[in-house]
DNA sequence: CGCTACACTTAGAAGTTTTTAA
DNA sequence: TTAAAAACTTCTAAGTGTAGCG
């Protein structure tokens, strides 16, 4: 029924103009679009000279439920006001999710929901447990089912509408380039879903209005028009920043931005720079390592703590660990914010000396669990840092990220804690590729090696994922496929054997040909079997590990490009279309002898 | 310094589309 | 032709790090 709701009438205000269709530039400029890396760079601080865009796409307005969809309170039908109903639908849509069973989620939701109610509603609805959203929930399930069952034509129509929206709002002109915008749609209202044990889960994320929006573009550009009857909060022309649109979100009070796609010049250049900084670290990392080993002996506690923390950041690729406001976010830590309760010291464990057992929640509340043998000096220092402390006390009480980064800045220009993660990730990939690639392997086996190298990095960086729900089942399916293939191979071999015997007796052309074709069949099946087995290994090893994050954010793409060129692997086997767009600069510049 | 505001990168989950194979 | 699985895209939360202020 209401399939094509995206981008409601709000964005169909009059006075539309085509962006980027005819920027009034001579031909060659469109060619420059995909090779910004050959252009001159801007001086420090200036991000652009010209910026023109059409502003954001707002969330579609709320459409009240049909009359026959009921909400029940205390067993009785209750008609809700539009505002209260909208918020109720947010909860109803999440009814199957574990979130809605959590005490904090329910409490936060109910508190914010009540704020949207009329005074009568408020006095009637006093307990969330008496609310029955099941009918609403069923309605939404039916809706999504109906969406799946839509005819080809209807689906096509929606697709076209999305394409139109993308064409119109999804691009901007920055200097001489037409660039893709990453997130041109404003986040719709809904219930806040934090990660892990977030104290604000379930709170109402309010609807963003044009009056909340700050537009950033150049003075001499066509300023985007707000929807009819509305005004922007502000229009500014700040070319020291890269964002096009910003607004303040109501849960944490933080600022959200609309920025460009990773394929854009402004993102790509920065990404390139990041890897260049990491390569500079490569040149001085030995010196830095010697330095912090010396500092373990310092008579200043502050220096010792700094040196041990840096050792963890370097060896274990831990994040810096900024302080966070208590009670505002989930309780997670990084290196500098580790507490005594997050590590256990084992003078001896499983035959190893001086083992540190880490157990803490990091970014996104992903658990970091690791047992690491460390040098005696580190171990002794940790014992010292933990003396006379409570479990909830800071391990590095004389240290924070600001102190650490200031020190790093002195060791190398542009050096911060996160550069170690980038450096160690990239150097590990390069090393592992060297070690694991077997020149005699075929392409699928080489790709398996690549994935294994990638996996080593993901493990280092602790990039985890929830095992796919269907993992066990799909693994079994694959195994039975392998078994079937094995039988097929045995059959093919038998046939080959008898064909050979036959040819020996008959000695004619026809039977020789038959032997040849049977040989080929055996070979083909062997290859297929091998491919399946490789696939099974790869998948099993990947069960709980996410490769994407490191590939996208930590691995110098030139290493991968060089590896592909060296071994004749098509780049498409390693990077999909989006990734190739993001790394276009690296694909263009890296030769097979590139060294990180 | 220590604080906050701001800008920008990094992150896994959820949703959607494409591919595979029965 | 269908359904399951895989691949890919979108979404937006959650980090890092710097600048500017008192």
Automatic annotation (TrEMBL):
Residues 141-168 form a coiled coil. It is found in: Nucleus. It catalyses: ATP-independent breakage of single-stranded DNA, followed by passage and rejoining. The active site is at 554 (o-(3'-phospho-dna)-tyrosine intermediate). Residues 495-519 are annotated as: Disordered. Pfam families: Topo_C_assoc, Topoisom_I, Topoisom_I_N. GO terms for cellular component: chromosome; nucleolus. Residues 191-568 form the DNA topoisomerase I eukaryotic-type domain. Releases the supercoiling and torsional tension of DNA introduced during the DNA replication and transcription by transiently cleaving and rejoining one strand of the DNA duplex. Introduces a single-strand break via transesterification at the specific target site 5'-[CT]CCTTp site in duplex DNA. The scissile phosphodiester is attacked by the catalytic tyrosine of the enzyme, resulting in the formation of a DNA-(3'-phosphotyrosyl)-enzyme intermediate and the expulsion of a 5'-OH DNA strand. The free DNA strand then undergoes passage around the unbroken strand thus removing DNA supercoils. Belongs to the type IB topoisomerase family. The keyword DNA repair does not apply. The lineage of its organism: Eukaryota, Metazoa, Chordata, Craniata, Vertebrata. Its main location: nucleus. Its EC number is 5.6.2.1. Keywords: Biological rhythms, Coiled coil, DNA-binding, Isomerase, Nucleus, Topoisomerase. It comes from Malurus cyaneus samueli. This is DNA topoisomerase I. GO terms for biological process: chromosome segregation; DNA replication; DNA topological change; rhythmic process. The keyword DNA-binding applies. GO terms for molecular function: DNA binding; DNA topoisomerase type I (single strand cut, ATP-independent) activity.
């Amino acid at each position: 029924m209401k399939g094509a709701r995206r981008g409601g009438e709000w964005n169909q205000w009059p006075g539309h103009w085509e962006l980027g269709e005819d920027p009034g530039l001579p031909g060659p400029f469109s060619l420059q679009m995909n090779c910004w890396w050959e252009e001159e760079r801007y001086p420090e601080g200036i991000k652009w000279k010209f910026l023109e865009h059409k502003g954001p796409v707002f969330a579609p307005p709320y459409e009240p439920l049909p009359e026959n969809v009921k909400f029940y309170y205390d067993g009785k039908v209750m008609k809700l006001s539009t505002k209260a109903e909208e918020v109720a639908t947010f909860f109803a849509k999440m009814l199957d999710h574990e979130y809605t069973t959590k005490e904090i989620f329910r409490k936060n939701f109910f508190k914010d929901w009540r704020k949207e109610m009329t005074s009568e509603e408020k006095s009637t609805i006093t307990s969330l447990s008496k609310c029955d959203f099941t009918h609403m929930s069923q309605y939404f399930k039916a809706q999504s089912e109906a969406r799946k069952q839509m005819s080809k034509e209807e689906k096509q129509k929606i697709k076209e509408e999305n394409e139109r929206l993308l064409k119109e709002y999804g691009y901007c002109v920055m200097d001489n380039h037409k660039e893709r915008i990453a997130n041109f749609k404003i986040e719709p209202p809904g219930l806040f879903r934090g990660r892990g044990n977030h104290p604000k889960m379930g709170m109402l994320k309010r609807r963003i209005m044009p009056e909340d929006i700050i537009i950033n573009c150049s003075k001499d550009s066509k300023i985007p028009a707000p929807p009819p009857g509305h005004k922007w909060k502000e229009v500014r022309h700040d070319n020291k920043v890269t964002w096009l649109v910003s607004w303040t979100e109501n849960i944490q009070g933080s600022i959200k931005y609309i920025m460009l796609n990773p394929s854009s010049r402004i993102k790509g250049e920065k990404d390139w720079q990041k890897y260049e900084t990491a390569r500079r670290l490569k040149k001085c990392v030995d010196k830095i390592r010697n330095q912090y080993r010396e500092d373990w002996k310092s008579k200043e506690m502050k220096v010792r703590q700094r040196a041990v923390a840096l050792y963890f950041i370097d060896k274990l690729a831990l994040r810096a660990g900024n302080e966070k406001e208590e009670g505002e976010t989930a309780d997670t830590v990084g290196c500098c914010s580790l507490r005594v309760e997050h590590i256990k010291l084992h003078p001896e464990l499983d035959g190893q000396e001086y083992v540190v057992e880490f157990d803490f929640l990091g970014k996104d509340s992903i658990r970091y669990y690791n047992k690491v043998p460390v040098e005696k000096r580190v171990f002794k220092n940790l014992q010292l840092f933990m003396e006379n402390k409570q479990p909830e006390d800071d391990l590095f009480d004389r240290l924070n990220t600001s102190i650490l980064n200031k020190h790093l800045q002195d060791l190398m220009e542009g050096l911060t804690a996160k550069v170690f993660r980038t450096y160690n990730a990239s150097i590990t990939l390069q090393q592992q590729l060297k070690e694991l690639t077997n020149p005699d392997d075929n392409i699928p086996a080489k790709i398996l090696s690549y994935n294994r190298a990638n996996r080593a990095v993901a493990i280092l960086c602790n990039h985890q994922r929830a095992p796919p729900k269907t993992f066990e089942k799909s693994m079994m399916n694959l195994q039975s496929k392998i078994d079937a293939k094995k039988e097929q191979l045995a059959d093919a071999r038998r046939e080959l054997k008898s064909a050979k015997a036959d040819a020996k007796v008959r000695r004619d052309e026809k039977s020789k040909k038959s032997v040849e074709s049977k040989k080929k069949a055996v070979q083909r099946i062997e290859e297929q079997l091998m491919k399946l087995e490789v696939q099974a290994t790869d998948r099993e090893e990947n069960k709980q590990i996410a490769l994407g994050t490191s590939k996208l954010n930590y691995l110098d793409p030139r290493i991968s490009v060089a590896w592909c060129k060296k071994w004749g692997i098509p780049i498409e086997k390693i990077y999909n279309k989006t990734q190739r767009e993001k790394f276009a600069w690296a694909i263009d510049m890296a030769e097979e002898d590139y060294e990180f």
